[in-house]
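CO-FOLDING WORKSHEET

Operator: S.A.
Ligand of interest: zinc ion
Run index: 366
Mode: holo prediction, single chain
Checklist:
[x] sequence pasted
[x] SMILES validated
[ ] output reviewed
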Amino acid sequence: MHTPTPGPEPRSQPGPQPRTAAWRRGTPGRPGSARAGRLREHLRLGRKGLAIGVDIGGTKVAAGVVDAEGRILREARRSTPGNDPRAVEQVIVELVEELGRGHRIWSVGIGAAGWMDLDGATVLFSPHLAWRNEPLRDNLQRLLRRPVLLTNDADAAGWAEWRFGAGRGESRLVCITLGTGIGGAMVMDGRLERGRFGVAGEFGHQIIMPGGHRCECGNRGCWEQYASGNALGREARELASANSPVAQELLKAVDGRADLITGVIVTELAKAGNATARELLEDVGEWLGLGLANLAAALDPGTFVIGGGLCDAGELLVAPARKAFARNLTGRGFRPAAGIELAALGPNAGLIGAADLSRVSSRMHS
Ligand SMILES: [Zn+2]
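OUTPUT RECEIVED:
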């Protein structure tokens, strides 16, 4: 479990900004009135209070009580119960009840792969679950009797890295989550940038190799087919199936079954010093750096934070990415270049960010 220690105040942290102007429309009440007093108490609790973050993955649901400094006070997890929306809601309710015992919980944030509408109320589409235009927030608010926010899991992780992790205080931050695919998030001037319809940041589906490997999105040659954990596993399986002598160690690790090689296995071998596994990671790192250079041309961030499971490889992945980034950056030599940093919060970034976003958002809409 990662428990970030409270560090110094972020550099020039502008503070979380409201995503809508709804809070401005509220009438706070005359100073000294009972309504103004209630509102002040409400805001004070919101700033200091605890929130529960829930990260729904394809195989497990992880949840935690998170304080205002991003520390996890208590955690619990369950298996994802198939893809029936009601069963998933039930698991969320059980986790919140279990974790909330003895704590005063302000709000609940739910992070999941997929697209949420801009209000954080409806899941438009989720790849792992059967949610299609599902009004999940209202269902859960009814069951939990607390403010609930839905957010994309990569957005949640990016927000957490900006608030408490490797991107703290960066005014133009792009976060990349490398897992089976690629997730993306942008925090610009203290706001999560989600585009016009709430679906920005799908960087993994920029086409980087026209006519290349088929992607589950339906296109060919998407970045995530070259710079993800899945890409690493696929390349390693291909190499092992070619009966190349350089793949002997890889095959030994899976008792000769090339089809059992995964990105995780390659990463472990690379960390143990295997030269072929390191080469495979270097290739993925180069694709990563090339895609980051494309993003820098479009977005000009100050920092890229790279997170997700593939980051277990650490510098074995990021060093070649930095090199390819510098080699492919538009206008190189005549412009400042963004830093490329490893994420600081580990696999809990998603639930920390979902909790924090729910607290920030409920404060603004209350
Ligand atoms: Zn794609």
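REVIEW:
Residues 290 and 325 are 5 Å apart (CA to CA).
Residues 205, 215, 217, 219, 222 surround zinc ion (CB under 6 Å).
[x] output reviewed
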